[in-house]
Every structure is written in structure tokens, then in C-alpha cells.
What we know:
Order of helices and strands: EEEHEHHHEEEHHHHHEEHEE
Strand content: 25-35%
Mean pLDDT: 96
Low-confidence stretches: none
Largest sheet: 7 strands, mixed
Distance between the termini: 17 Å
Shape: globular
Number of helices: 10
Bound molecules: L-homoserine
Amino acid sequence: MTDEWIKVSAPATTSNIGPGYDVFGLALKEPHDIIEARRTDSPGVTISGITGNGSGSIPLDSAKNSAAIAAEAVLERCGAEFGIELRITKGIRPGSGIGSSGASAAGGAFAANILCDGKLTKQETVLCAAHAEDVTSGGLHADNVAPCILGGFTVIRSYEPFEVISIDPPADLGVVLALPDVTVYTADSRKVVPREVPIRDLTYQVGNASALVYAMVTGDLGLIGRSVKDIIVEPARTHLVPLLKQAEDTAMSHGALTSFLGGSGPCVITFYNKKTHDGGIIAAAIADLYDKNGIGCETWITECGEGCRRI
Ligand code: HSE
């Protein structure tokens, strides 16, 4: 390998997906970040540029940047004797709830592993990216970086020891992202999550979580809609996102399977059946709701996608 630049695409992801706080994640086709990387003679990771959506708020300092921290973790794990220079183009703005820091971390780890001749398994690469999330997002969670690297729908079975499983989601599952023009930082959003839950709420979440996994495996879209339920985490975060309930109700009244808070927010995620419904109509209705209330809202009509890939 020479010092030529390599380029990696790292997709947005939606995490939690109702009952699976820090457990479930789904890779999306759009939007995505681009991470470019090349070897350098001097050790360590440097960032020579960050451009794109919301790039002004992202630190160039390697000790604080998720792509750099993840790439450094890969170098260490591989015992590499070289360094890495990174260039980042953000397609996913920070504080969106669709895995902005996760995409940069996953892309940084994935690119670094290519430069290390693919020494790490995908699961090890996920762990390096999760380490970066721990440093930059106020707590260890791999439910964005796992789908970002592995693609599809992922389940973190256990953090210690780490085990993630990957499932192909149904092809008919359409996804609408509605991103209101407010910023919610994951570190802040994690602080409002309850530390303890009543056993009855736990029973409710486990039932829905189990059913959601079964529905993803069998492609039962109706059951997916019924199982994306969360009575613990989203209710604690609702106040952080203007018009969240109204946006979800708007999606449901236009035929959505389910509509819920994406990750730590503020993105509102809607699942719909691509065969029977038009994602454009759902997206326009939510954007209109925000517009009428004086809040901008960017939308994407997308679907489940693959993980990080070299482009
Ligand atoms: N599971 C994490 C959370 C995802 O909800 O805080 C952050 O995007």
C-alpha cells in the first residue's frame, strides 16, 4: 500500500427503533458522510479538512474528533507503525439523531482498517468505532456504528463481551426522515434517560423488542409497525423535540406503519410500506407541519441500506 488516498462512504443510521435503546440500529441509503484517508510516515491521526453539512461545529483536534479517535483505535489494535491523514465530508449534520458522529467514527475505523490491510474483523472495527462514540457522545453505545459498518438491521446482543448480530430487513420497508431545524446533542439527550425502570415497563419493552426482531426476520411489516413501541426512553426525550408527537401523528394519518424519534433526536423517523404508500406524501405532510409552525424541516425518502464501503 502506498500513500494514495482511499475514499469510504459511511451511511446515516437510525438507532433504538422503539424498544431497543442502545440495542437496535438500521443502516439507511441516504444521507451519508465521505471519509478519505491515507497513510503518513509520522504516527497518529491528523485531520487536514472537514467540509459539508454542519462541519463548522466539528473539532479538527484528533483527540476530540470521532473519525480520528476511531482510526487511532484501529491503528493501535493493529500495531501499525504508520499514521493516517483524514479528510471528512459531512453529509449528515451533527446533532441530527441519524448517527452523524457514528458515521464519521465508523467511516474512520473502516478506512483505517483498509489501510491496515483489513487486519480487523468487522466486529472489531465496530468496537473501535464504538470507543469513539463513548469519548464524543457521552456514553458507550454501538447501535449507530454497528449498522453503519455491517449494514441492514443490527442487534447488539451484549456489550461485554461484545456481540452484534445482523439481519437483512424487508425489501418493502420504506423510511422517511424528517429533520427539524433544531439541534439535540446525544450527550445531553442521554442525560434525561431514566436510570431505573419499573419491571412492568421492562416487560412491555422486551415483548415489543422480541416481536420487532421476529418481524424484521420474517418481513412482517404490520408487526414491525405494532412493535416499534417505547414507553421508557422516547417519553423522557419528547420535550427536546418541538412538535414530535404531532409529526408522528401526521405520519400515521398518511398511512405510516410507525413513526418515532430517531436515536437521541431530533430526527423523526417514519416506516411505511413502499408497495402501498408514497413516502413523498408523508415527508411533505411533516415538512408542512413544521413550516406552518415556523420551523424548517429537511426530509429524505430513503430505505434500508448497506454498511460502509469503499468508493
Ligand atoms: N442509543 C443512542 C441514544 C443513540 O439513544 O442515546 C444516539 O444516537
